[in-house]
Amino acid sequence: MSEVLATLQARLATLAPQTLEITDDSHRHAGHAGAREGGHYRLLIVSRQFCGRSTLARHRLVYDAVGDLMRNGIHALVIDAKTPDEL
Questions:
Q1: What is the pTM of this model?
Q2: What's the helix, strand, coil split of the chain in %, to 5?
Q3: Domain 3-86 has CATH 3.30.300.90
């Protein structure tokens, strides 16, 4: 597991996820200008902390947890944030 993936997983643990799946899609973006600035990742996260929150509020929680990785290590992050009842 890469350092970025391990850090991403550790930071998202603060949201107490019941499910956390991170897919590294960086290889699909080779040659893309942003690929030099960081990886491309897809995220499925299921947490009770998303209950009663809009999609935007859920994404903000994820971005708050990820923090500076969005400026150093991650170029693109596709987020699928669900509550346990939405599975």
A1: 0.88
A2: 50, 30, 20
A3: yes
